[in-house]
Amino acid sequence: MTVKTFFYGLIASFGVPWLVMLVVPYGSMRSMEPVRYDEINDERTDLFQAKRSGRTSNGSLVYAQEGCAMCHSQVTRPSYAGVDVFREGQGGTKSHPERGDTRRITHAWDFEREDRAHIGEARIGPDLGNFGNRLAALEVSENEATAVAMGVKIVKEDKSRLTQKEIIAALGDKAFDKELYLYKHLYNPREEGLNDPGDENAWSVCQSNPQFFKKVGNFGQGAATAVDVKDGQQVVANDRCKSLVNYLINLKKDGAVPYAMQYAKNKKKAGK
Ligand code: HEC
Fold first, then answer.
1. Alpha-carbon distance 27 to 43, whole Å?
2. Nearest to 107 by CA among 38, 29, 27, 26
3. Average pLDDT rounded to a whole number, residues 220-240
4. pLDDT per residue over 66-76, tens digit each?
C-alpha cells in the first residue's frame, strides 16, 4: 500500500460516514416544512405536528440533561429496519379502544418543539416513544384490578361497563396515580417497574435519581405524592422531576399521519 492509497482510504472511511450520517440528514431535515392534512383524504385541514409546550418542553430538556437517551430510544423504525412496529405498545396499539390500529413508524415531525430529538443512543431500556400510551393502558388495567379486588362491579346490571371516570370516582384515593408511579420509578427503579407494578424489579439498571427529590418536614398526613415518609421527614419531587414526569406522561407518537405521508400500499383514508 502506498502512502497515497492509505490517505485516500483514511479520508474515505471518515468522509463517507460523515457525508451519509451528518451532511445528508442535516440537509434534508434542517428546515422541514410542516405537512398539512388534506381535506378530501384526511377530512381535516390542520397541520401534522406534535403539540407540546410549557412544562412538557421543560421536561424534554431535563431528559436531555440526565442522559436518559443513552439507554432509551424514541424511535419506531420502518419495518425494513426492524420489527418495532409489530411490538405491542411500542409504535402504537393494534386495537386501540377508540382509534383502532394506531401503530406507525416515527417521523421527524414527532419531535416538533423539542430542542433535541431524543432518538436515543442504545436500547438498553425499553423504547419510550409511546410510553405515555403504555402508561395510560396500565392505568386502566390497574384501576380495573383494584376495582375487582374492592368488590366494585365493573359490569352494570344492563351489561354495560363502567367508564374509566366512573371507576376512578368509585376508587377514590385508591385509584392508580400515574405521577406517583413515575416518581417512585425515578426515585428507585428497582422498586417500581412498569411490567410488574409492586413487584420487585431488583435487576433494573435504570438509573435512580435522588437529585430529583428533596426532603421536607412531614406535618399531618404528608403529601400524597411523597415517595418515602419516615422519622418526621418526607421525600417529595422537585420541579425538574415534575417537568420530566409531565414529559414522560405525554410521550405519544401514534397520531394519524396525513394521507400524503403514508408509505403503505394500502393507504388508509379518513373514516375508511
Ligand atoms: C443505564 C441505562 C438507563 C438509563 C441511563 C436510564 N434508564 Fe430508564 N430503564 C432502563 C432499563 C433497563 C429499564 C427496564 C427496567 C425497568 O422497568 O426498571 C428502564 C425503564 C424505564 C422506564 C419504564 C419504561 C417501561 O416501558 O417499562 C421509564 C419510564 C424510564 N426507564 C425512564 C428513564 C428516565 C426518565 C431516565 C433518565 C432520567 C432513564 N430512564 C435513564 C435503563 C436506563
1. 32
2. 29
3. 85
4. 999 999 999 99
Which amino acid is it at 75? V
Q: How many CB atoms lie within 10 A of CB 38?
A: 14
Give the residue, by CA position, lying nearest to ligand 1 atom 26.
Answer: 126
The burial of 29, by beta-carbon neighbours within 10 Å (0-12 exposed, 13-18 middle, 19 or more buried), is given as: exposed
Q: Kindly give the distance from the C-alpha atom of residue 205 to the centroid of ligand 1, in angstroms, as a whole number.
A: 7
User: Distance from the CA of 19 to the center of ligand 1, in angstroms?
Assistant: 32
Q: Give the Å distance between the CA of 85 and the centre of ligand 1.
A: 20
For ligand 1, residues with CB inside 6 Å are 66-68, 70-72, 124-126, 131, 134, 185, 189, 193-195, 201, 204-207, 209, 244, 248
- Cα of 92 vs centre of ligand 1, distance in Å, is 19
Residue nearest to atom 39 of ligand 1 (CA): 68
Contact 103, 85 (CB under 8 A): yes
Span 183-222, pLDDT tens digits = 999 998 887 554 455 555 677 889 999 999 999 888 877 7
Q: Residue 259, exposed/middle/buried by CB under 10 A (0-12, 13-18, 19+)?
A: middle
CA distance 80 to 59: 32
